[in-house]
Amino acid sequence: EAYQYDMVFNARLRQAALQAQLEGGTTERQLNRMLDDEKNHEYADQIYYALAQVSLAHGDTAKALQQFELSAKVSESNPQQKGGAYLRLADHYYGKRDYLRAAGYYDSALHALPESYPGYQHLLTRGHALGTLASYARTVTREDSLQRMARMPEGERLTLINQHIEKLKEAEHQRKLDEEKAAQDRAFAQQNQYRNSYQQQAQSSSKWYFYSPVAVSMGRTDFRLRWGDRKLEDNWRRKNKLSTGPGPEGGEGEVAEDSTRVTDSMRVEFYLQDLPLTDSALQLSNAQLVQGYMGMGNTYRYQLQAPEAAIATYEALAKRFPGSEEGAGAFYSAYLLAKEQGMTDEQQRLASALQRDYPSSGYAQLLRDPAYLANLQQKMQTLSSSYESARQELYAGHREQAHGMALEGLQQAQGTDMLPYFDLLVALSAGSNPGNAEQMALLKKYVASQQDASLRTYAQEVLLALQQQELRRAGQGGAVAAPVADTAAERPAVLVNYTVDTGAYWVALAMPAKGKAEEEKFKILSWSVDFDVNNVVQIDWTAFNEVTRLFTIRTFAKLQEAQRYAKALEQARLFPQQNVVVLVISPANHAKLLQQQGLTQYLEFYREAYGH
Length: 612
What we know:
With 612 residues, the chain is mainly α. It has helices spanning 2-18, 20-23, 25-36, 44-57, 61-74, 79-95, 99-112, 120-150, 154-204, 213-227, 268-272, 279-303, 307-320, 325-340, 344-357, 362-368, 372-395, 399-412, 419-429, 437-449, 453-475, 517-531, 559-572, 587-596, 599-610; strands at residues 505-512, 538-543, 548-556, 581-585. It has a four-stranded antiparallel beta sheet with strand order 2-3-1-4, with helices on both faces. Helix 6 (79-95) runs antiparallel to helix 7 (99-112) and helix 20 (437-449) packs antiparallel against helix 21 (453-475).
C-alpha cells in the first residue's frame, strides 16, 4: 500500500511540475494543498523543491531560494533530495560569484549526495577549493576582529566581552531547555508508538538488541531525530566535512591542542589570550592577515579561475598594508594576472598604481626595466661571493681585512636581502679582538633591531658566548685595587669613556647570574658584618647583562677602605664555583659601566691609567 501511494504521489508531483509554466498560481495552490495533507508530510522536501521550481519559472528567485532551503531542512530520509536542494542553492550563489556563501552549500550538498551522483568528482573539486577559500577568509575576519578589539580601550573591551558571555549563557540555557523538551517528546512518542508491540516482541525474540526489529526501528528513529540521515564514515558527527582539509598553512590533519590555552568560552581570558596587545603579537597577526589575503587571492586565481575576485583581493591586501613589501607584491600579482587574462585597462591601471605607490620597490623597477631581474640576480651573486670572502677572512683571524670588506659590502647591499648579513658581519669583525667593547655594542644594537628571527638568534648566541668569556677572563685577573691617580692629566688620552674621580668609592662584584640573587646578597652582607662590624654598607644588585649579575656595595668614604674591603672580599672566595670579579669603582664610572654593560673596557682603563 505504501509503495502504491509513493507511485501516486510521484505521478501527481511530476504532473504539477509540468504544469508550472502553464497554469501559474493554480499549480502553486495545488502543491500547497499537497503540502497541507497529513499523508504527504514525509514528502514535504519534494513538494518544497517543486514549489521552488515553480517560483523560478515565474521569476521569483528570492522565494525559490527560501523554498530550496526548506526542502533541504525538512528532508530526513532522502539524502539525494536534500543534497539536490543544497546543490541548487550552491550553484545559484556560485553563479552570482558569492563564493563564500556558496562554500557552505557545496559542503552540505557533498555531505548528502552519494559518490555515484553525476559529476560528483567535479563538485568535490569545486567544494574543496571553496572550503580552502572559506578557511583563508575566516583567518582574515578573525585577525581583523582581534586587532579591532585590541585597539579598544580596556574598559570598553571588557564590557563587550562580558556582554558576549552573557548572551552565550542565555543561549546555552535555552539550548538545554530545548534539549530537555525534545528528549521528553521523543520518549513520549516512542512510548505511545512501541509500548505494546515491543513487549510482545521481547517475549518471543532473543534478548539481543539487533534480533528485535522493533528495538532496531526505535533506535533508528531516535538516531534520525537527533542527527538526521548520516553517511557511515569517519567524523560523521561533523557538520562541515570540508573543514578537515587544508587550512591557511596548507597542511592537513588535526592540530595538536595547546594545554596552556583557556578553552572555556565563558571566561574573559578565553577572548583575551589571542588579542595582539604587544608589538610582537601584532606582527604575527599581520603575518597571518597577509597569508589569508594572499591565500584567498591565489585560490580565486588558480583554483576557481575567478580573475576579477583575485585582483580585488590582491588590491585589498595592498590597501590593508600600504607602503609595505607585501603590498607591493600583491599589486604586482594583480598586474600579472590582468596581463595573463588580456585585461588591458586593468593591467595599465595596476601598473600605474604600483609605480605611483611603490616607486622604489623591486616590482616597480621591474616594470620600468625588463632587465632589472637579471641585473639583480647578477648583483646578488656578486654580493654573495663578497660576503663569503669576508667571512673566510674573519675565520682566518684577519679581523681588520674582514671588517673593511664587510663595510664595503654593506654599502653595496643597500636595498637587497644581503643587507642584514653584511650588517651582522660588520659587528662580528669589529675591533682588534673578540669580545671588545665595540663588537659587543654593535651586536647588542643588531639584536635589538634585526627582524629576521634566525639572524637575530645567531647574534644573540654570539653575544651571550662573548659575555660569558669576558666574565671568565676578568675573573682570572683578580680584584682591581691598584692605586688611583690623583689627577685627570695623568690618564692616557686614548681612554675617553672613564674618568679618574675623587671622593666616595664603591665596590662592585660581578658573577654569573645562575643562583638566587637575594641569597647571594645575604651571603655578602653576612660576610661584611664579620669583616668589620663597624663598617655599615648597603648592598644592591642588578642584571648587568644577559649572563652576568652585578652586586654594588656602597659607600666607602676613603679609597683605601674600598681597596681593603675589595681585596678581602676576593680572598674570602664566597662563591668558589663561580667566576667572580671584584672592582673598586667611583659612582660616576659605575653609571658608565652599567650603560656599556662590558667589563673588559673598564679593566683596560685600570691597567692603562693606574698600572694595575
